Amino acid sequence: MTTKENFFEDVYAVVRLIPEGRVSTYGAIAAYLGRKGSARMVGWALNAAVTMPNVPAHRVVNRNGQLSGKGHFGEPTLMQSLLEAEGIKVKNDTVQNFKDLLWNPQSELL
DNA sequence: TAGTTGACCCCGC
DNA sequence: CGCGGGGCCAACT
Fold first, then answer.
1. Is pLDDT of A66 > 90?
2. A72 beta partners
3. How many CB atoms lie within 10 A of CB A55?
4. Which nucleotides of B are covered by protein (CB under 7 A)?
5. Using CB atoms within 10 A of its CB, is residue A10 exposed (0-12), middle (13-18) or buried (19+)?
6. Which nucleotide is at minimal CA–C1' distance from A73?
7. What's the rounded Cα separation, in Å, for the pair A58 and A60?
8. A37 contacts: CB under 8 Å, gap ≥ 6
């Protein structure tokens, strides 16, 4: 009763630690949790994160900087709106200057 | 119970 | 340089 919930909570914790105006990637979070290569699980956790308040899942994008999960925010424009509201420029469902805004838990939290 | 899908990523052809 | 397949772990049907 603790395994999966622990994994979910862990993902939430990292996502919540993402600074405002920054973005992270599934692979980075997955690697930080030890599920390196299992980035899909991070996506699953974030899917459940929709029901979790205070979890800025909109700050989590794929390795390409694209808003992969924008279609899961209820409205396809919500994710982009939230990112732009934080000062992040989004164009064509892709984070501009993504490389510079990328926030890596393994490096930043270290 | 078993099969398929999924907010992904990497390698091979 | 473009396309396809495999790998990962868990949830859904």
1. yes
2. none
3. 21
4. 6-10
5. middle
6. B7
7. 5
8. A30
Closest nucleotide C1' to the C-alpha of A4: C10
Residue A84: what pLDDT?
97
Q: What 8-state DSSP symbol labels residue A90?
A: E
Q: Is the pLDDT of residue A57 over 60?
A: yes
pLDDT in tens, A14-49: 999 999 999 999 999 999 988 888 899 999 999 999
d(C-alpha A77, C-alpha A8), whole Å? 25
Subset of residues 21-60 in chain A with CB less than 7 angstroms from any atom in strand B: 25-27, 37, 39-44, 46-47, 49-50, 57-58, 60
Three-class SS state of A26: helix
For A70, half-sphere exposure in the C-beta direction (CA atoms, 13 angstrom radius) is 19
